[in-house]
Amino acid sequence: MNVELTIAKNLLTETLLVRRGIPCLCRIRSLEFEVAFVDPLPAANGKVSDWDHKKIDERAPAGAGGKYTHYCFGTISLTPLGDEQYQVVDLAFFNRSVGWCPIVIDREYGPVGSFWDDEGQNSGG
Fold this sequence. Notes:
Layout: E1 2-7, H1 11-17, E2 22-29, E3 32-37, E4 44-49, H2 53-59, E5 70-82, E6 85-95, E7 99-105, E8 108-109
């Protein structure tokens, strides 16, 4: 999974992008997956490529209604690949119904989530 990230190039962003677990906002709509850094972080927007919608749905339950299947806060860790290109090292979504959902761990999709028991009750993720 890769991100083309538009962010100002300066000392602050250079030190930010080497951190693990950078807070972010994640939005998935149809075939588009966007990641954004929001205040108080430097503004940044990115388009994610090489991702699988089904694998994300298996790891974080999709929301109901609205234009996004996933619209949530998360954390992301990146490694640079080149001009504005980064590989996703770690990615987790926060879902208010089930908590933290690891999507990517060490560049690989994380374990499939177990969100609902047989009676449809939240059993954690």
